[in-house]
Amino acid sequence: MTGTLINVSTIVVGTFIGMAVKTRIPDHMSQTVMGGLGIFTIFVGFSMALESRNMLIVLFSIVLGTIIGSLLNINGRLEAATAKLEARFAKEGSGLAQGFLAASLLFCVGPMAILGSIEDGLTGSYRILMTKSIMDGFSSLVFGATMGIGVALSSLPLLIYQGALTLGASVVKGAMTDSAMVEMTATGGLLIVSIGINMLGTKKLLVADMLPAIVIAVILARLVL
Length: 225
What we know:
0% strand
């Protein structure tokens, strides 16, 4: 759970720095920093993808996984659920609640939290969560300056959510073959590349719809390798 603990720490520290500074970060600075993080995210994704020993498994995993995710409309369902929660808390008008909800959705809802937690639990590596931590830390600084302590409190559901995923992944680790872990990591790497592309704003990819590719990669690796 090292990656999750780092993630929680950066959110809390970022929030309190934002609350202390109370100044709005210029838009051009925010865009430049997030662009740099997007490039780094792509680099991390490619470094993971290149670990594959059978690229055809990764290819078919991405294609089949995306088809399944699209049919299930995972991305659409997540967006609809997020919109309902935002509308509910917006009506209540609590600044603390709004800050907590907005930050929780930003930090918890997304493929990076899932992929990073699984990577941490299966391999002990927290490359993805370290990248996410930097992103969340910068975001919490901005949110903290405008929404206050509610942003820091969002680290609690993050701890429970990502911690549970990490522990769950560590439990099934014994049932995973080395080849399955390698191909799952490589497939996840391409999803991380997609997240980086979204961060750069060059093209909007529905990464959540691609998440079933992780499971497909494990199944194909067990059948082929």
